Amino acid sequence: MYDARTEPWETEVDSTDIAGSPVGTGSRRSLGAVYVAGAVSAMGTQMTLLALPWLILQSTGSATMTGLVFAVQVLPMALLGFLGGEVIQRLGARRTMLLADAARGPIIALVPALSAMDMLGFGVLLVIVAVLGVLGVPYFAAQRVLATELAGSDQKALTRANSVLEGGFNTAAFAGPAVAGVLIALLGAEQVLWFDAASFGLSCLLLWRFVPRDAGSAQPAGTARKGMLAGVRVLLADDFLRPVMASTVTFGFLVRILGIALPLLAFDRFGGDAAIGGLLVGGFGAGALIGSLISYLIANRLSTARQMSLATIQLVLPMWVLLAPVPVGVLVVALALSGASLPLSNAPFFSILVTRFPGEIRAKVVQSVITISNIAGPLGFLTGGVVMDRFGIAATLLILAALSSLAAVNLLLALRRLNRPPGTARRAVPGLDMS
User: Fold this and answer.
1) For residues 13 and 384, which has the higher predicted lDDT (pLDDT)?
2) Which fold does the domain 22-218 belong to in CATH?
3) Nearest CA among 180, 167, 176, 338 for reference residue 259
4) Looking at the record, which segments are called Disordered (predicted)?
5) For the chain, how long is the longest CA-to-CA vector?
6) Cα–Cα dist 135/426, whole Å
7) Model-level pTM?
8) Do 22-218 and 227-429 come out as alike in CATH topology?
């Protein structure tokens, strides 16, 4: 059995702070600024996810053009994702976030500004969206790295910090589109985009004012690991993280298929009732939000490995409930439980990730995990539609439950290796000092 007292990385990192200094009041204030900045910018972005397609549909009436805009925005993560770790390593996490926020605010503001002057062609819009996508590539990983340095090296403190970050994003994902819908009705889609521009400005101001310049600093020349794929090589060399990443990518792939399946489940089983479809999707989102809070509250009570193990089981078991002819309320509860498992698993996983490796490679490892997961996501959307057209919703849900169960077993077996020293990673990556 896993013993929380023998976590293999406890002797690998300093006991005060990853950045080398104790965590005090100033660090807590700085960490709070990172939390608020992340939540504010995420809220603006989620509002734009409704406002931008609404604007395109009003202007062109074309669903194809709307889809193309979204594709252009996510494409940079697939093409340039691994470059994000290089950017963070050279600029530092704080500076990366500041530059991204400072640039994205004026760029998104170009959309309503040019539209008001009747100068917003579709080609111009695609360029704006592509630039936004490029600037967003290193942002999430930089946020995790910066929070790590401010929170300190304690596993449970890091799990709480990651839980708050997850909670900010999940709150924005849950409330952002709803708020945007109200504002679009009152002000129009173009005006809502000004709120997103303002959110980037506020995020930049918070980071500049409350986060010290030496936090999340760049790696000194000659110490940084070179190559965009350095993080991938480290992941592949680690006997624990290699199978964990296989399960993580599988879950990310399957959750996207589930996102498509839920509306079709309501349509097929409940006579096309759109309200039920909304309840199912909303239940999963509400669960993710509640899971962030629970993760924060239990971080001091459970080890990271045990929390991940329980969350993995919690993710998979409700998948089997979807196959049964149960009432809508049971389905909503099952989906809420499954949704809650995502932050319950993600928060300790990122805590393990950032403390398992030294600062010289940490950013590239985190960026590699995010990039690989984001590449798997769109594939899930594409595959889900094809599978459901070919086999139907019932067979698709069965495949989801079976594959997620296999991924869960693989992850649970991998977690048993946490009490082994990560010596394989050190031997397999020459020159990487894990001490």
Assistant:
1) 384
2) Growth Hormone; Chain: A; (1.20.1250)
3) 338
4) 1-21
5) 66
6) 33
7) 0.74
8) yes
- pLDDT-based confidence at residue 219 (cuts at 50, 70, 90): low
**CA separation for the pair 317, 3 (Å, rounded):** 25
CA–CA distances in Å: residue 205 to residues 34, 40, 93, 208: 11, 11, 15, 5
Q: ∠254-260-262 over CA atoms, to 5°?
A: 100
293 vs 304: CA distance, rounded Å:
16
At 303, give phi and psi (nearest 5°).
Answer: -70, 160
Question: CA 61, CA 264: separation in Å to the nearest integer?
Answer: 24
Please tell me whether residue 154 adopts helix, strand or coil conformation.
Answer: coil
Enter the tokens of residue 270: 């409940």
Is residue 161 within 8 A of residue 348, CB to CB? The reply is no
Which residue is listed with tokens 């490679």?
Answer: 361
Return the SS3 of 138: coil
Q: Which residue has the tokens 């990122």?
A: 350
Residues with Cβ within 8 Å of 75's Cβ and at least 6 positions away in sequence, in order, are 130, 133
At the topology level, CATH places domain 227-429 in Growth Hormone; Chain: A; (1.20.1250)
**CA–CA dist 190, 175 (Å, integer):** 19
pLDDT in tens, 312-333: 999 999 999 999 999 989 999 9
Query: Terminal CA-to-CA distance of the chain, rounded, Å?
Result: 26
The Cα–Cα gap between 284 and 289 comes to 9
| Distances 110 to 45, 128, 311 between C-alpha atoms, Å | 15, 8, 42
Residue 252, both tokens: 């990310």
Residue range 336-358, pLDDT digits in tens: 999 999 999 988 888 888 888 77
- Per-residue pLDDT of 39-55, as tens digits, reads 999 998 888 877 887 88
SS3 224: coil
Sign of torsion over alpha carbons 46, 343, 434, 376: negative
Tell me the pLDDT tens digit for each residue of 259-272.
778 878 888 888 87
What average pLDDT does range 252-258 have in this prediction?
84
Q: Are the C-beta atoms of 162 and 147 separated by less than 8 Å?
A: yes
How far is Cα of residue 297 from the mean position of the Cα atoms in its chain?
Answer: 20
Cβ neighbour number for residue 6 with a 10 Å cutoff: 12
Query: Quick one: how far is CA 350 from the chain centroid?
Result: 10
